[in-house]
Write a structure and sequence with these properties.
This protein is an alpha+beta fold. 23% of the residues lie in helices and 38% in strands. It contains four helices and 20 strands. The chain has a five-stranded mixed β-sheet with strand order 3-9-8-5-6. A five-stranded mixed β-sheet has the order 11-18-17-14-15, with no helix packed on it. Strands 1-2-4-7 form a four-stranded antiparallel β-sheet. The termini are far apart.
């Protein structure tokens, strides 16, 4: 260990300044009657710090104390802490204002165990919403943070954990752990995530109806050429649309009855017409045959009568 380092350590305990009075003045901050640079009191302990000035040639006008560079409310040669808490941790120093100048003492660090003073409560969020978890702790040195989700350690190391979009898998128990060289403190809380509601029947009915696009018209010239050679269909007989193809589908009329349309209907009508034509031909042939038989019978009777008369 070199001499410059030893000198630096010793100077941190006792600080001397040359006053305007031309005399060296020393000031010491002691704990339990001794100069020290750090103490580690347990929570609830009593601490009494003392400020002592030596070598002054004038009167001490006032004493003041600072913590982490900020002036404290206590004054005088003693600084007392009754019941140490995490918030009491920090770096303390004593200052003495004299007639011939102001002197500063050595510093004393009080390290304290961390304590979480603000933890997020149990929360309920909706799926897809953002959520924020805030954890705040006191202690010295300043505590660091670690977040856990169940047994999984999260990578976030700040006191605020933000998730922009909540998923159902984010539901569960979270923990915030604050720690420093003196120890750790942990807080637990639960996050619930509500699933998005499923679409209802009213939502479906409120949706706009689908747009039906009409098919382009199909040329009917070939169909009309075929229809011109067919027997005329009586008025009122249902006909098929020439643009329809495939299997016939039933259509509902105004009175609720269903009828067939499409090519099968054309075949049906053509079959009926053909049947009626054949029936008419058969009927005509039957009439002609009957008439021919009657004529032949009359001819035979007339021939027989003539034969009798000749005899």
């Amino acid at each position: 260990m070199n001499k410059s380092f030893l000198c630096l350590v010793l100077c941190s305990f006792v600080v001397g300044v040359v006053s305007q009075c031309g005399q060296e003045i020393s000031i010491e901050l002691t704990y339990a009657g001794a100069v020290t640079d750090q103490i580690n009191p347990h929570t609830g302990a009593f601490i009494d710090l003392t400020c002592y000035v030596s070598g002054q040639s004038g009167n001490v006008i006032a004493y003041s104390w600072t913590k982490n560079g900020n002036t404290e409310s206590q004054t005088g040669t003693r600084y007392a802490i009754t019941g140490v808490s995490a918030a009491d941790g920090g770096i303390y120093q004593c200052l003495a204002e004299l007639d011939c100048g102001t002197v500063s003492s050595n510093t004393l660090t009080i390290s304290t165990e961390p304590m979480i003073v603000a933890a997020p409560p149990n929360q309920v969020v909706e799926e897809g919403e953002s959520f924020q978890l805030t954890c705040s702790a006191e202690g010295w040195p300043n505590p660091s943070y670690k977040w856990q989700f169940g047994s999984e350690t999260l990578t976030h190391t700040e006191g605020i954990y933000i998730k922009p979009t909540a998923a159902l898998s984010d539901q569960g128990e979270y923990s915030c752990l604050a720690g420093n060289i003196r120890g750790n403190d942990v807080s637990y809380f639960f996050l619930s995530v509500n699933a998005l509601p499923s679409p209802t029947l009213s939502d479906v009915s409120a949706a706009p109806p689908p747009t039906i696009q009409e098919a382009p018209p199909t040329s009917t010239s070939s169909y009309e050429a075929e229809s011109s050679s067919m027997t005329t269909i009586p008025e009122g007989t249902p006909t098929a649309s020439p643009t329809q193809t495939g299997t016939a589908a039933p259509t509902t009329s105004a009175d609720g009855s269903s009828s067939l349309s499409g090519p099968p209907l054309v075949i049906l009508v053509f079959s009926i017409v053909l049947f009626l034509g054949l029936a008419l031909v058969i009927c005509c042939l039957s009439i002609y045959t009957i008439k021919e038989l009657v004529r032949q019978k009359k001819t035979r009777k007339r021939s027989s009568k003539n034969d009798i008369e000749e005899i």
